[in-house]
């Protein structure tokens, strides 16, 4: 299990480093909801972090009830503080041992958590237990073979670190199909994070995302200097938008 999110300071800053414009969050919820075609669905988010997705699901998917599970008490405390919602219950638990009876959920969301799971086949088997036959698992991540974000141009060491942390598509598909899921599909797209390099630099100075905890402070500041220099060279009339790639893999729990 990851220890990094047990750090209360990291948990405290996670929300700021990962917040998303409402329009983007809404688009994500619509995408997730498009795979869950049952009224008033029972949903689970595993590795819910500070609860941004869980609360948004409860807010925008009609009648949804959400169990938001996380392995870190520090993250759960932030979630209860930032994203309380009557439709969301926050609970301590892990992907490998979910505190819920069998066949409880119409769908499970794993957003940016699959790379944290030390035993993915075991987590996939646990999902087979808790998701109803015909139910969905939606994995939101970046697979190792598509780590092509702008951030790596300025922090090349991060690419090496992430390549060892993030699983490939085949590995995840194999874990889920072996556990009893079929693959609906895997889609990949780049989402704008900021409209320019300058804006990206400002954002990282103010709110570095948690992935930078894997670098030394020196590595972080060297990369920030490279990004600042590139932002200064950016022509004001030709800003360079910064994109972030996401892969979404959708699985269906086979019917008995
Ligand atoms: C990068 S955050 C993602 C938070 C949220 N899902 C999002 O997309 O914003 C990863 C979260 O997974 C949690 N986590 C790590 N390993 C876990 C495990 N084995 N079971 C459940 N949660 C875990 C961490 O505590 C952390 O809150």
Number of domains: 1
Kindly state the number of beta strands. Answer: 7
Low-pLDDT segments, ≥5 res: none
Average predicted confidence as pLDDT: 92
CATH class: Alpha Beta
**CATH topology description:** Rossmann fold
SS summary, helix count:
10
Description:
- The protein has 256 residues and is of the alpha/beta class.
- It has helices at 8-18, 22-33, 52-60, 73-82, 120-130, 151-154, 156-165, 169-179, 197-206, 217-233, and strands spanning 42-46, 65-70, 88-92, 105-111, 131-141, 181-194, 242-253.
- It has a single domain, classed as Rossmann fold (3-Layer(aba) Sandwich).
- The mean pLDDT is 92.
- S-adenosylmethionine binds at residues 1-2, 5, 18, 46-49, 52-53, 70-72, 75, 94-96, 111-113, 116-117.
Index terms:
256 residues; alpha/beta; Rossmann fold; seven-stranded mixed sheet; 10 helices; 7 strands; 41% helix; globular; binds S-adenosylmethionine
How are the elements arranged and paired?
Blueprint: H1 8-18, H2 22-33, E1 42-46, H3 52-60, E2 65-70, H4 73-82, E3 88-92, E4 105-111, H5 120-130, E5 131-141, H6 151-154, H7 156-165, H8 169-179, E6 181-194, H9 197-206, H10 217-233, E7 242-253
Parallel strand pairs: 1-2, 1-4, 2-3, 4-5
Antiparallel strand pairs: 5-7, 6-7
The protein binds S-adenosylmethionine.
């Amino acid at each position: 299990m990851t220890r990094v999110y047990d750090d209360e300071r990291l948990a405290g800053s996670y929300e700021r480093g990962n917040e998303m414009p409402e329009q983007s969050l809404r688009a994500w919820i619509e995408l997730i909801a498009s795979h869950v075609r049952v009224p008033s669905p029972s949903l689970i988010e595993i590795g819910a972090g500070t609860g941004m997705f869980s609360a948004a699901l409860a807010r925008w998917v009609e009648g949804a009830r959400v169990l938001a599970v996380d392995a870190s008490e520090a993250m759960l405390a932030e979630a209860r503080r930032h994203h309380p919602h009557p439709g969301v219950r926050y609970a301590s638990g892990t992907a490998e041992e979910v505190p819920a009876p069998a066949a409880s959920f119409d769908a499970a969301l794993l957003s940016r958590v699959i790379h944290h799971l030390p035993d993915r086949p075991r987590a996939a088997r646990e999902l087979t237990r808790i998701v109803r036959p015909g139910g969905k698992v939606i994995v939101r991540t970046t697979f190792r073979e598509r780590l092509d974000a702008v951030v790596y141009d300025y922090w090349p060491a991060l690419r090496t670190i992430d390549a060892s942390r993030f699983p490939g598509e085949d590995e995840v598909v194999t874990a889920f199909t072996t556990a009893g899921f079929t693959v609906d599909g895997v889609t990949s797209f780049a989402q704008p994070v900021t409209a320019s390099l300058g804006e990206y630099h400002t954002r990282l100075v103010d709110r570095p995302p948690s992935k930078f905890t894997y670098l030394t402070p020196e590595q972080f500041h060297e990369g920030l200097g490279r990004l600042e220099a590139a932002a200064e060279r950016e022509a004001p009339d030709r800003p360079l938008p910064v994109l972030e790639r996401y892969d979404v893999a959708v699985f269906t729990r086979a019917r008995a």
